[in-house]
Amino acid sequence: MNYLIRPFILILAPIILLPLIFVHPSNLSNCAYVLILMAIYWVTEAIHLSVTSLLPIILLPLLGVIDSERVTMHYFTNTNMLFLGSLIVARGIEHCNLHKRIALFILKLFGTNPIMLILGFMLPTWFMSMWISNVAATSMGDSIAQAVIAEMEKWAQDHEPPHANDLEIKGKLEFQNISDTEKKEREILIKKNQPIVQQVGKSHFTSLATGISLSIAYAATCGGIGTLTGTGPNLILEGLIVSRYGESSGLNFGSYMAYAVPISVLCLICTWAWICLLFIGPKKIFRQNKDKSQEKKVMGMLDREYNKLGPMSFAELSSIIWLFILIVLWITRNPGYPLWNRLFVYKQTDGSSHSFATDTQPVILIAIIFLSWPAKNPFKKKYWLTKHKHESLLPWNEMQKGLSWSVIFLLGGSFALADACQVSGLSSLIGSSLHSLTTVPPMASMFLVICGICLVTGITSNTATATIVLPILLSLAECNNINPLYLALPGAVAASLAFCLPVSTPPNAIVFANGRIKIFDMIRCGLFLNVVCILIVFICTISYGQAIYGLNEFPKWANHCSTTGNKTLLH
């Protein structure tokens, strides 16, 4: 949006919405005022998304919706601490360059054949974006990609025809049309001192460079879907479900991975296949390249970059081990039934037994280890003989540099707004007003929700989209006797399906900034991926997703709005 228009939106939006407060003063209308104002600011980006997320701290208490203490506690909830812990672990991995070693190793492993090269870039970016931020994973992959592309570009220039850049040629090119063997002529103009790739049109090299750049951004998007901490909408879903229903819903790190990782893998495979088809071409995919000089130069560059890292350090090895332990702890806490979680069950005053452990405890434990575990091997004698200060895997000052306060504020603002909507009755009102959707089959409702969210998230922040839509979906499901996860789970995943525009996601913006991608390339590639990924999310949810979460029945733990306790089967 034009920067000249944003100040007017910033000032006029709260003024235009004032009738909501003064015409029918109530908690409900006051909450609606805050919700609509924040939605306008989020969509138009009149101010930074994170700054908008701080508005509930001011407006909700002043308008009498909920008190200040209740609002501010949402900015450091269990989910926010889960995200903070994952940020610290991710920063530790980045600090020791483990993510770069993994990426270069996989690229060397897959080789420099174009289709395998694209897959080699996608796999490490996809995997790392599950555990570190999509922005960090994309930046890592893109920096390596630019070095590879530069090496390919250098090779292309070295293999230009002699004097191709020194002559101005205006003439005619004759060629054979295979279908009718009739000679045709095409006038061409080669400008003086213009690169050969521009003279003859978009070359195979340029197309491959575009495909590599897009593949990195899309792989980060697919990877972020796979874990609860992978991206903002997943964390918002987890926060809303836990605050609204507690642990009874069965949504935790392990169960979410069981649902989302297959979706993530399928999206990745389809993305890889489509990019290869679009930017390499069906003929060249299966054609064996006889000239190996380009592949040798690229492989040589990868070898040089990998050798610069030296042998695997104690810090890198420690990071791998602690990351593996964290993943195991997350998955085995409560994978449908308590495992190590039951070791920490305690009796309450009412006689019931309960465990207070969540996915936050393992990640904070590993985060503390990253901040205190030595970066050098303490089992070597020279470690104790050196007088200089010993660093940890992640020094405190480095941890501070990597903290993404913007996401923490976004999460806090979304939870505060969702709580206000529930307390004021706005969520119930919206859910009741959409009661007519009971005439629509649940599967059709789910498909429409996925499509609608996918459309909206393409033009605005996925976190903002999830913040506004997910609480409404939960209330709608409750009031219509549908399992809340039936709509909210695929809705949260759909909020990440943004492939079409540079503004859709930070990874898209990062690769677009290199100047190798045209908007048309991103749109024609992204539109197809949106359609395919929508179908993948829909099919996976109605198949094995129902088995994991029991989506085909209305659970007792969701009986907030419904007055009946009977289970309603979905057909």
Automatic annotation (TrEMBL):
GO terms for molecular function: citrate transmembrane transporter activity; succinate transmembrane transporter activity. GO terms for cellular component: plasma membrane. InterPro entries: Na/sul_symport_CS (IPR031312), SLC13A/DASS (IPR001898). The chain crosses the membrane at residues 6-23, 35-60, 72-90, 102-123, 256-280, 309-331, 447-473, 485-504, 525-549. It is found in: Membrane. The keyword Membrane applies. It comes from the Eukaryota. Keywords: Membrane, Transmembrane, Transmembrane helix, Transport. PANTHER family: SOLUTE CARRIER FAMILY 13 MEMBER, SOLUTE CARRIER FAMILY 13 MEMBER 2. Belongs to the SLC13A/DASS transporter (TC 2.A.47) family. NADC subfamily. This is Slc13a-1.
